[in-house]
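hey
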């Protein structure tokens, strides 16, 4: 009895203790929360955040603590963390007004429109009269108007934004919206006034400074632009991007000395970190030549004799100047005596790049392996290693390596670009494009990354996003030729003639020879796309006259005549030029090409042969001659010409391609594969080269597992393709790997398009057979054998006859 009573007491005590513990947890959480408030009031935010994290360990649902923590993250500028905590808040408390408003506002700042719509719609329901919610509502209306190309709705949204901006000039999204709207209507002065009003109340909003910079450029305010760039550098002295802007401005405006003077004012060889000084030396090299850069470094080495970074940079310059052996020796000597550290690893990578340039890939790879053995996340070494892996069709290994590098260098956009290349090799096009987008954004929309991403978007016909990307890049670098040319292509493809003409005017304003040449190409493309062929020809005639007989202008003019079907005018223009310049070989080449168009093939052949006697290593001449002889139906002569051309140009990919195609037609598959291997080694980024090699390996060596594996690694980039030949290659490899459903997904459209190719029809028949679709397999084998003919000796059709006989002899099965 005593024991039973004691046990009851123990149980009761345990229950009481358990209840007390629960109460204590809540009380402890609340105590941590109250402590955090006191600490924040006293200015000790760091300890307050620790207290709030203690709250979450005890009570994750503590609403006030979550709100306070999120708001502190917001004040500290840790926006990603703030966003995450507000997101947790609204997910647990859907009617949380403040959280919804802030989430919509943060998403709006980052242009994450799906999130703006999700949280904005809820915020509009909960607090329609909150001014911040009105901002979100106007921004959504403006975006909808842009997407629907409704100019009146856009202007109405802008009018509402004007009213809000009067009350809230500190709201960044309003200023950006108004600037964009005014600029769209050509009201650059009004747009500039918006930035003038917004910047004093938003002094840290760097987007506003960039917008103002672009507007000054649009207004042609050269003096104001220079003064503003100087102000920006004074306002943000630690922002390298603004230093680069003023340097680009000085160089674009022909003020090379001012650029050098500015650069000297912000760097010195006595700096502890010599990275910026190294950039200055490269600037001297690019603008005054290698000798000037070497002289600059010699002066620096007098200040800091034997300094390893300067010594390595001097070796690099010697290499660029042609003293390759001495440069390599100098770096090797430096590395022999230096203690291993981060700098020496960078020097080893620099030496590896030199060895690569001198075709010593084995030595380069050895150095990179040494660097990665010392430091597994040395980013520059990883970039080289990943590039080799991608080239070697080891894209999965490259992706793993690049992920490791991005963990240590999350903002390295070159790593992102390489990662995109690796995913593209795997056929993951959407993921590759996402990484190109991230690389462009992370680089601050640098020209190379922005154009690369825009090109991917143009290929997918996503012109609006491509335009946005290119315009973002031009805001910081308004005179970048590659970006302007890509933007013009977007406008021409979307038939936005007025904006394409604006790009053309900008290029002519820049005035350099490459810029004017690009403007001429845009003008010609505009006229041709609008079917204004007479104006296009008149434009080209004027160009030719202005060029004083430049053969390039003549070539374009002749091509234009031929496209218009006016052979007589083409001949007249060429004959006139040849009379005036009888010894110009380019004109003889044009004459040969025109003879071919006119149908005088023997005369064209004679002229090409004459030119080849003087220029035996000119690939284009060989190709044109082969084309002319092919048209004369002389296959043996073509065969001899290809072989003769390869004697003069043994590495010509085009001539190798011609020979491989012939060998394939002659069923010399081993010979064709050998040549395609050479072509692929030269250009493994070529999708066509990859397809041809993978196709032959899979089709004719598909009984060997190693060859099938190699074919798959080469052909992975073809996933998702809509090209029928590529579909056949990838589909057949999927079949060989036992992926029959995926095989049919590719082989059916391939066979539907390549109706005269018996191999493609055979591939589909085998996939049907493996999928137990016997009737379809019978029809497909019959089709393949009918196209191939009774005498085709290839193994595929021997197999097709055997399988067909087996299927026809088998008893019919009832469908399930």
């Amino acid at each position: 009895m005593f024991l039973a009573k004691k046990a009851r007491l123990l149980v009761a005590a345990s229950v009481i203790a358990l209840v007390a513990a629960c109460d204590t947890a809540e009380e402890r959480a609340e105590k941590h929360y109250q402590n955090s408030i006191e600490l924040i009031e006293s200015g000790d935010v760091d300890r307050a955040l620790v207290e709030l994290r203690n709250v979450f360990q005890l009570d994750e649902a503590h609403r006030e603590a979550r709100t306070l923590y999120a708001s502190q993250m917001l004040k500290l500028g840790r926006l990603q963390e703030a966003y995450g905590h507000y997101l947790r808040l609204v997910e647990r408390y859907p009617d949380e007004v403040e959280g919804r408003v802030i989430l919509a506002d943060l998403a709006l700042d980052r242009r994450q429109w799906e999130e703006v719509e999700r949280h904005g719609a809820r915020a509009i329901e909960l607090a329609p009269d909150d001014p911040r919610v009105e901002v979100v509502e106007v921004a959504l209306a403006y975006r909808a108007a842009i997407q629907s190309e409704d100019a009146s709705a856009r202007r109405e949204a802008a009018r509402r934004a004007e009213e809000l901006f009067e009350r809230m000039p500190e709201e960044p999204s309003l200023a950006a919206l108004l600037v964009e709207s005014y600029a769209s209507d050509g009201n650059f002065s009004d747009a500039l006034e918006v930035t003038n009003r917004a910047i004093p109340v938003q002094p840290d909003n760097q987007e506003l400074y960039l917008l103002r910079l672009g507007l000054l450029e649009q207004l042609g305010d050269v003096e104001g632009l220079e003064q503003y760039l100087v102000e920006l550098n004074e306002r943000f002295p630690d922002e390298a991007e603004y230093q680069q802007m003023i340097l680009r401005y000085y160089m674009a405006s022909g003020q090379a000395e001012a650029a050098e003077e500015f650069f000297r004012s912000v760097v010195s060889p006595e700096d502890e970190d010599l990275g910026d000084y190294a950039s200055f030396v490269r600037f001297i090299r690019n603008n005054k030549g290698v000798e000037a850069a070497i002289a600059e470094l010699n002066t620096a080495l007098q200040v800091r004799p034997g300094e390893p970074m300067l010594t390595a940079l001097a070796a690099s310059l010697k290499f660029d100047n042609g003293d390759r052996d001495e440069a390599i020796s100098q770096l090797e000597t430096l590395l022999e005596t230096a203690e291993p550290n981060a700098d020496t690893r960078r020097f080893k990578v620099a030496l590896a790049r030199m060895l690569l340039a001198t075709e010593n890939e084995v030595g380069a790879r050895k150095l990179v392996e040494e660097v990665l053995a010392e430091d597994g996340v040395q980013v520059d070494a990883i970039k080289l290693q990943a590039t080799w892996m991608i080239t070697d069709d080891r894209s999965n290994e490259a992706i793993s390596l690049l992920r490791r590098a991005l963990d240590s260098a999350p903002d390295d956009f070159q790593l992102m670009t390489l990662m995109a290349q690796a995913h593209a090799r795997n056929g993951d096009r959407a993921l590759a494009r996402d990484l190109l987008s991230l690389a462009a954004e992370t680089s601050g929309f640098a020209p190379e990354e922005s154009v690369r991403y825009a090109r991917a978007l143009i290929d997918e016909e996503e012109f609006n996003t491509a335009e946005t990307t290119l315009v973002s890049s031009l805001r910081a670098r308004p005179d970048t030729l590659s970006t302007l040319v890509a933007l013009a292509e977007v406008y021409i493809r979307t038939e936005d003639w007025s904006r394409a003409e604006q790009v053309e005017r900008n290029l002519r304003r820049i005035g350099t020879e490459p810029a004017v040449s690009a403007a001429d190409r845009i003008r010609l493309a505009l006229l041709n796309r609008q079917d204004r062929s007479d104006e296009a020809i008149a434009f080209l005639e004027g160009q030719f006259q202005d060029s004083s007989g430049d053969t390039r202008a003549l070539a374009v003019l002749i091509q234009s005549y031929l496209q218009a079907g006016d052979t007589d005018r083409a001949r007249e223009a060429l004959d006139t030029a040849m009379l005036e310049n009888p010894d110009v070989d380019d004109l003889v080449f044009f004459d040969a090409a025109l003879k071919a168009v006119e149908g005088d093939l023997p005369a064209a052949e004679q002229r090409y042969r004459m030119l080849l006697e003087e220029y035996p290593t000119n690939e284009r001449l060989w190709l044109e001659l082969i084309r002319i002889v092919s048209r004369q139906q002389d296959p043996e002569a073509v065969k001899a010409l290809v072989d003769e051309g390869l004697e003069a140009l043994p590495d010509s990919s085009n001539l190798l391609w011609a020979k491989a195609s012939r060998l394939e037609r002659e069923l010399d598959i081993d010979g064709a594969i050998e040549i395609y291997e050479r072509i692929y080694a030269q250009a493994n980024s070529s999708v066509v080269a990859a397809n041809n090699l993978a196709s032959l390996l899979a089709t004719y060596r598909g009984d060997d597992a190693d060859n099938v594996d190699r074919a798959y690694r080469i052909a992975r980039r073809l996933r998702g393709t809509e090209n029928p030949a590529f579909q056949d290659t990838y589909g057949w490899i999927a079949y060989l790997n036992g992926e029959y459903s995926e095989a049919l997904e590719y082989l059916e459209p391939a066979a539907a398009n390549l109706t005269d190719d018996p191999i493609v029809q055979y591939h589909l028949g085998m996939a049907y057979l493996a999928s137990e679709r016997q009737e379809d397999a019978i029809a497909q084998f019959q089709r393949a054998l009918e196209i191939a003919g009774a005498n085709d000796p290839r193994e595929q059709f021997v197999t097709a006859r055997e399988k067909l006989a087996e299927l026809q002899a088998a008893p019919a099965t009832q469908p399930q």
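Residues 1-22 have pLDDT under 50 and may be disordered. The two ends are 74 Å apart (CA to CA).
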